[in-house]
Every structure is written in structure tokens, then in C-alpha cells.
Amino acid sequence: MVEKFSHIDESRNVHMVDVTFKQDSERIAVAHAKVKMKKETLQAILQDKIAKGNVLTTAKVAAIMAAKKTSDLIPMCHNINLTHVDVNFSFDEEQNFIEIKSTVKCVGKTGAEMEALTAAAIAALTIYDMCKAIDKTMEICEIYLLEKSGGKSGEYRREDNR
Amino acid sequence: MVEKFSHIDESRNVHMVDVTFKQDSERIAVAHAKVKMKKETLQAILQDKIAKGNVLTTAKVAAIMAAKKTSDLIPMCHNINLTHVDVNFSFDEEQNFIEIKSTVKCVGKTGAEMEALTAAAIAALTIYDMCKAIDKTMEICEIYLLEKSGGKSGEYRREDNR
Amino acid sequence: MVEKFSHIDESRNVHMVDVTFKQDSERIAVAHAKVKMKKETLQAILQDKIAKGNVLTTAKVAAIMAAKKTSDLIPMCHNINLTHVDVNFSFDEEQNFIEIKSTVKCVGKTGAEMEALTAAAIAALTIYDMCKAIDKTMEICEIYLLEKSGGKSGEYRREDNR
Amino acid sequence: MVEKFSHIDESRNVHMVDVTFKQDSERIAVAHAKVKMKKETLQAILQDKIAKGNVLTTAKVAAIMAAKKTSDLIPMCHNINLTHVDVNFSFDEEQNFIEIKSTVKCVGKTGAEMEALTAAAIAALTIYDMCKAIDKTMEICEIYLLEKSGGKSGEYRREDNR
Amino acid sequence: MVEKFSHIDESRNVHMVDVTFKQDSERIAVAHAKVKMKKETLQAILQDKIAKGNVLTTAKVAAIMAAKKTSDLIPMCHNINLTHVDVNFSFDEEQNFIEIKSTVKCVGKTGAEMEALTAAAIAALTIYDMCKAIDKTMEICEIYLLEKSGGKSGEYRREDNR
Amino acid sequence: MVEKFSHIDESRNVHMVDVTFKQDSERIAVAHAKVKMKKETLQAILQDKIAKGNVLTTAKVAAIMAAKKTSDLIPMCHNINLTHVDVNFSFDEEQNFIEIKSTVKCVGKTGAEMEALTAAAIAALTIYDMCKAIDKTMEICEIYLLEKSGGKSGEYRREDNR
Q1: Per residue in E37-62, is it b (16+ CB within 10 Å) or e — as a string?
Q2: For C24-155, where are the E strands, in sequence order?
Q3: CA separation for the pair C45, B21 (Å, rounded)
Q4: How close is the nearest chain D Cα to the Cα of A1, in Å?
Q5: Rounded CA separation C145/C116 (Å)
Q6: Looking at chain D, which runs of residues are DSSP E strands?
Q7: Cα separation of B127 and B59, whole Å?
Q8: Nearest-5° angle of CA A54, CA A59, CA A60?
Q9: Residue F73 · residue F125 · CB < 8 Å
Q10: Cα–Cα dist A36/A32, whole Å
Q11: Considering all CA atoms of chain A, what is the largest pairwise distance in Å, rounded to the nearest integer?
């Protein structure tokens, strides 16, 4: 094979990590996201008055489907088989936000952090989409990993973040 | 985490079933579908006279490809690795229909029923698409599970349905 | 270019129809599907007691998403931009079935029949998936085109089909 | 058609908005996101020392590809043809964050807000993925629409948000 | 917005070309590919003796489907609506190769060169896949653009390449 | 089941090979491709002067993402979980070509040859896309399997092909 590296190839480091010899293990990842909105927007969601329809179920279905295609979105992410995805919403009617918590499990050689984070982000974006006709100022924030377990790097739990 | 559930969240039940602790096992699912059509349409298919081309091979390729993306279509369906997909057609030239039988196998924590049903449905829809220029009255029916084996719920065989 | 056709190429007819010189027009297609089930299954859906969660909203979201990827499922189907997708359910508590009606619109060179039929089929398959833990005997049937308008072939309306 | 609505169908509102009769117009949407990280993490990115490789180009490619599949992620989002996607990064080495600005254009019946927001979110998630081996505490925040133009609702510009 | 570019951002040039103000026009692109193989392999294909089944129809369906998802494969490629895709095969039984010619048409702001090239490449890869059990030495070569028309850059025709 | 095969079904052989009872094993496949171009084109790539941006990193990201969706492109290909993907480029400034070498690993019942070949082909097509504005004569060639190991058929190494 010709190998005349007279030039540095700027792509040389990019690669999908080799996990061939990693052990399969049960893995859980939990991620968090928040959608801040106007008082009227949150009330419209809670009273199911958004013209596009049932906001939260749509967001949840979108999040679960997105978790399954994470490796198609995040370039260096391994494609893995998920064994469980769930997404929950809670509401703060004083500060007017929806809090999203996504849980993803798998049994495999790599963790499910990106799947959990992607599910949370897509749930948030779907809420935005369903409500943007009445509120373009919504803001998605605090997307982070809450905890993970399984795998060689073991347990991680985000420190007191509130 | 803020948890002020002053409102019922109508999405609260939707989730992908947790199969993390299920055992891997060999699984087979066989599904059925039927496409009813005009006499001329069936004859045109059998004599390979449809303008769009080879109807049955196209339908079969479509069905096999669809089986592989079932989890991208059916929201709560787990993404699994299939070990075999096959689709067969038989013809009734008296009652003018094509019968579709799809077989899907996998080794995993969940069954392949939805994959077999999706393959059968997409084969039927592809036949419709290839022939719709000459027959808009075609009807797809009798999509059901013929049998499954493997997994905790064990064997299932549809009772005498003919 | 070498062109020694000593053999018949059995694939020679398969192709995506050339619509380059067709006019853009507003098009509507309406499709139908039915899911027959046990009495208990329909009642569990209507009372929102299915363990996997909200069956109908999940089926509807799945159907709308599937309509958008019809051309990725049906090989010879053109990829088009949809301008509207809606799916409605009605229930027959005597004969125990759910009836699905999907409406798809676009402005383009080809109709949206396959999109409407695919949406109806995927809605039906999603209902099957959500309920299969309690009822494996469900049957999907009567998938057909109810009506279409727009395009050169003009109006089509299924004749008295009941 | 049978229409015995003895029960409320909780999915009845969910639908993709009908834009059939909207005019095509040139549309631009600009979205924003931020990834907060440890000082070491930002320095490793800027000095191209992340083991997985070139973080920013990978994030940008991911963002552009994600913009094109937004309608496959956000259920009620129309599938549209994009005419331009670009993503830019800027760095704050004092507060240790990367700022993402995505611009999406199209000529069509609906805006590109969701495409711009999705591009920004996926760029941020890709940065997270590339760096998570050295920093699990990264946080994605301030995902919002900066501005949009085109379409019936006209101009929108986020008010002085800093 | 913070803009402290103390570092060069190596991703700064990557973007999808802005075609917002380009005119729609009818465009055609024709691409070429060749698969070289053992004599026995070509004969097995022509006599339909490959265990995996009908090689050429499967390759053609794969190619047509791939053309439609080119923008999902080639990062900076615009997503466009195709109006026609066709793929033809010819055989050279002396030099033992299959020649592939793919034609793609669209009406839009960008050409369909990448779609035609992707169709040709995927047809070739599918032939490889179907036959690899009997011949691992197959080689795909001569993938190039034969001609294109439409758009501002006008006609292109590959010069006498044989 | 009705089985009146009065006609030969031309699709009868097409199927995805049954690997249900194959053993999982570690598998590696390495593929090769080459892109021939004008001297100016190669120099523009090496000096990072292509208007669309960083050619090689974009090609590499595209290749890695394509490897993961091989089973969505090649109809009879099994969907498998990859454990590693890498792509390297080398340059020949005398004969003016880029050589691509892709390596794919998995632990499973089927090999990763098609994934490696698809990665190489998509890397080549992406290089074409990024440079086609300045050079339409580029040609992709020499796509073949360099080596594979693992699985029942064991080792394969292409014989001295240069």
C-alpha cells in the first residue's frame, strides 16, 4: 500500500473507540433536561390546549424513538441494542418550566449515556416544536448526565446540582 | 429534583418495556398478509407485465429491509439484531389474491413478532404500489401472527384460521 | 460502453416512474385500516389500561412519522414533501374493532396514496405492538385507499365498500 | 364508516399542521446552544488532544446531517428541503464554554426553526460524546432560537439575551 | 454573543453550499460503475444460481432506494426530491464484469450527480454482497460521472473514456 | 394455507441468510478504495483549500456513520453492532490519488466485510462530493476487501494486488 504521508492528515485521530474486547455488562444512564417557557405556555400544555395536540405523549414517543437512533446522530457513538427507555416529565408552575428525566438501559460493551442525553434533548425539542406557535422564547437548558452505572468506569453520579 | 405533580401527566405510562434481565433465546415469528386484487392485476403480476417491473422480488426486498428497521417504525419496539428474514408468496388465481408469509428469526431478549408483521405489511404495500396504476381497488387484509416460539411466553400458534 | 446482452436481465423493468415533467398540483389521499381484537383488548385500550401506555396517541405519532418515511420503505415510491398528515380512530364496541382513517396532503408531482396507506398500516401495527402482551390474535384488515384527488389521473373514490 | 365515539380519543388533537395552501418563501432560522465544561476539557479541544479526534469538525458534520433529518426526529415537523446549513463555534476561555450558532435556510411552506435548533443540539451532544471520557460534568444549555425570517409570521429576533 | 477567537477553528470551512437563490431547473445525472469478478461468478449470476437469490433485481432495488437517501450518507449533500431513478446492467462475458449505469433526474436547485454515483456504488456493493460467499476477490471500479445536464454549470459529458 | 404454485415465483431465492445457529466470534474486515483526481484537486485537498471545507475529516465521519447503516443500504445484509470503525487516508502526489483503508470490527454471527466496503465507498463518494465543483473527472476505483478474519470461513487476505 502506498503510504507517502508528506502531509499531515487532519482527520487522523477521528475514530469510533474499539470496544471489541470489552465485557458485556448491564448499564444504566439517566439524563436530565429542562424547558423554560412563559406561564401561559406551561398552562396551555397542562390543560392540553396546544393546537398541535398532546404535547407530552408526543415528546415522550419522540424521545424513545430518538434514543434508538442515537448512533445515527452522534458520529462516533456505537450502535447498541437498548433494553429499556423511559422518559418522565415534572412541572414547576412557579418558575414555569418542565423538567425531563430520561432513563436508558442496555446490556453491552458501551454505556448508554449518549442515548439518555439524546432522548432528553429530543423530548425538549419536541416540546419546543409543539408550542412554538404560541411561544418562540422557550429555552432548553441543563442537559446533563445525572448518573450512570455499569462498565469499566463504574458508577457516576452528578454532584448536588441544585 | 423538582417534583410538583399538581397535574396528571397523560404520557406517564408510555415506555419501552424493560427486558434488561431477560435471557437471550432463539426466537422465530411467522406472520401472514393477503392482497386481494382484480383478476387482470394478478395475471399481470404473474406474467411480469407490470410497467414498474418485477413486483414480487421488489416486494420481497422491501419486506426484508423493513424487517430490519421495524424498531424505527414501531415506537415501543426494541431494536434487535435479526439472524434471518424470509418472505414467500403464493397465489390464488380463482379468488385473485396473493398470500404473503414472512419468517423472522433472532437470538435475543425480545421476540420478532413485530418484525415479521412489519415485513408482511410492507411486502403487501409494495405490491399495492407497483400495481396501483392499473388497480386502485386492491385491499390488504388478514395481517396476523401465524406462530412464534422462543422467549418466556413460549409457543404460540394461531388456531385453525382457514 | 460495452453492451453485450447475451442474457436477459430480469431486473430490466424495475424503475422509479419518471415524473420530471409532471405538473405540481395539490393532492389529497385518504386511506383506511381496521384492527380486530378481543372485547377485553378494546376495553383495555379505551380505559387506558394497557401496560405499555397510551395506545392511540402512540399509534398516531408512529403513523405520522411513518408517512414521512414512506419512500424509505416502498422502493419505487418518490420522496415527496408532505404538507399535512392526520390520523383518526373510531371504535366499534359491538364488533370490537378500531377503525383508522389517515389523510395525507402534498403539493407535488406524485400523489400521496402510498403515504396514506403506510400511515394507516403503521398505526395498525403500533396498536398491535402495544396490545400484543394481552392479545396475540388481533388481526389487521381492510387496508385500502378511500379516496384521492389531484394529479392527472384525477379523483378516485372507493365505491360503497361496506 | 362506523363512527361510534362513545369514548374520548385522547389522541384526537395530534396532527401535522396543514400547510398545503401556504406560499413558498425564503426562510432563515438561526439557533444557539452552549456547552459548559471544565477548563482542561476546553483546552484539550482547542489543542486537538481529545483521543476520539477532531471534535469541532465532527460536531459540525453531525449537526449538518442532523438538520437534514429533523423531520425524522421531531414527530410533527414537516419534511422540507434545506438550501443551506452552517454551524459556527466560538470559545470563552475564561468561563470555559463553547458557543454554537447554527443557520439553516430553505425555500418552502414552513420555517426552518426546528432544523436550526436540532443542528445546534446535535452539535452540542456530539461535543459531549467526543469529550465524555475526560469530563462527564459537561452541561448543554441556552438552546434557543436567535432569529427567524420569512413566512407569514415574519421576523422574529430574540431580545437582548445577554 | 461572545466571539473570542483566540484559536483557529479547524471546522470553519465545512458547510452545506447555500443554494437558496438558485433557480429550479430540470437536471439529469448519469453515473457509471463496474464490478469485476471471476468467470464462475458472472456465470452464476447470469444463470441465477446465487444462493442469496436474484442478484440484479436486488441490486437495482438497493440502488434506487440508496439514491433517495444520498443526502443521509454524503454529509454536505442537499436533500432533494428525485423525479426518476433507473439503473441498468450490462455484461461482458469475456472480461467477466458487470457494468452499471444509473440515471437520476430531479427538478431543483442542485444537481443529482451524487445521487447517481451513490446509486451506482450501492448497486455494485449489493452485487458484491450477494456473491461474496463464492468470490471474495471481486473488485468495484470505474465509478465516475458519465454526464450531467441542467443547472448553472450546464452540460458535462465525460470524454471518451474507453 | 393456499399453495397453488401454478407460476414460478421469480423472487423465491432472495432471502437474508439464516445465521441463527452461528457462533458469536470476533471479526475484523479491512477494505480498500482509491480516488483518482487531477493534480490541482489533490493539492487543494492537501492545502485545505476546498470551498466546502475539511475534506478528509468530513469523509471520515461520513464513512464511520455509513458503516453503521450498512444493513439499511445492502438489502440482504444482517444488522449488527460494530465495536470499532476506523478509516485512514494516504496520498500519492505523483499519480494524484487518495488511498482509503477502512477497518471494521464486530463480535457477532456475521462478518463485517460489507461494513468495511461501504465505509470505504462512502469515504470516496464524500471526497468526490466535496471536490466536484473543481473536478468532475474524479474516478473511484479499486474497491475491494483487503482482509478479514473471524467466523467459520476463517482468514482471507487478498493476494499481492499491486
Answers
A1: beeebbebbbeeebebbbbbbbbbbb
A2: 25-36, 82-92, 97-108, 139-149
A3: 27
A4: 24
A5: 8
A6: 25-36, 82-92, 97-108, 139-149, 156-157
A7: 6
A8: 105
A9: no
A10: 13
A11: 67
Q: Express each pLDDT in F95-148 by its tens digit.
A: 999 999 999 999 999 989 999 999 999 999 999 999 999 999 999 999 999 999
**Optimal mutation site among F139, F148, F149, F162, interface E, most CBs of chain E within 10 A:** F139
* % of chain F beyond a pLDDT of 70: 92
What is the phi/psi pair of residue B146, to 5°? -85, -45
The class (CATH top level) of A36-151 is: alpha beta
Phi-psi region of A151 (alpha: psi -120 to 50; beta: other; left: phi over 0): left
Tracing cell 398516531 back to the chain, one arrives at C60
Average pLDDT over residues D75-81: 96
Residue given cell 450477494 in the structure block? E130
Tell me, what amino acid is at C49? K
User: Which DSSP helix (H) or strand (E) runs through F82?
Assistant: strand F82-92
Contact C118 B125 (CB under 8 A): yes
pLDDT at C160: 64
Chain C residues with CB under 8 Å of D75 CB are 61, 64-65
**Class for the domain spanning B39-152:** alpha beta
Helices (H), chain E: 39-46, 55-68, 70-73, 113-131
What is the SS3 assignment for A130? helix
A105 to chain B: which residues are within 8 Å by CB?
18, 20
Q: Using the beta-carbon criterion (under 8 Å), do C81 and D76 form an inter-chain contact?
A: no
Contacts of E17 in chain D (CB under 8 A): 84
Neighbours of D130 (CB within 10 A): 26
Kindly list the distances between the CA atom of residue B82 and the CA atoms of A81, B29, C99, F41, in Å, as whole numbers in the listed order: 12, 11, 31, 43
pLDDT score at F37: 98
Output the pLDDT for position F143: 98
Q: What is the residue type of A85? A: V
DSSP state of A7: S
Topology at the third CATH level for domain D25-152: Alpha-Beta Plaits (3.30.70)
Q: What are the residues whose beta carbons fall under 8 Å from the beta carbon of F65, sequence distance 6 or more? A: A72, A75, D65, E73
Does the annotation place C76 within a ligand binding site?
yes
Fold category of C36-152 in CATH: Alpha-Beta Plaits (3.30.70)
Q: Output A98-101 pairs: Cβ under 8 A, ≥24 positions apart.
A: A98/A34, A98/A35, A98/A37, A98/A42, A98/A45, A98/A127, A99/A32, A99/A33, A99/A34, A99/B1, A99/B2, A100/A32, A100/A33, A100/A34, A100/A35, A100/A59, A100/A63, A100/A124, A101/A30, A101/A31, A101/A32, A101/A146, A101/B1
Strands (E), D42-92: 82-92
Which range among A13-17, A79-83, D105-109 shows the weakest confidence by mean pLDDT? Answer: A13-17
Which of B49-53, D73-77, E110-114 is predicted least confidently? B49-53
| Residue type at B24 in one-letter notation | D
Residue C102's DSSP bridge partners are C31, C87
A2-28 pLDDT, tens digit per residue, is: 444 445 566 778 989 999 999 999 999
Distance CA B2, CA A160 (A): 13
Q: Does the beta-carbon distance from F57 to D58 stay under 8 Å?
A: yes
Q: Do F68 and A76 touch (CB under 8 A)?
A: no
DSSP F69: T
Spell out which residues of chain D touch residue C99, defining contact as CB-CB under 8 Å. 1-2
Measured CA distances, C117 to C123, C144, D115, F36 (Å): 10, 7, 27, 46
User: If pLDDT is split at 50, 70 and 90, which confidence band does F152 have?
Assistant: confident
Chain E positions contacting chain C at CB under 8 Å are: 26, 32, 46, 48, 54, 56-57, 59-61, 64-65, 68-69, 81-93, 99, 101, 105-107, 162
As given in the structure block, the three cell numbers for residue F46 are 492537501
- C156 strand-pairing partners: C148
Find out whether E100 and E30 touch, Cβ atoms under 8 Å: no
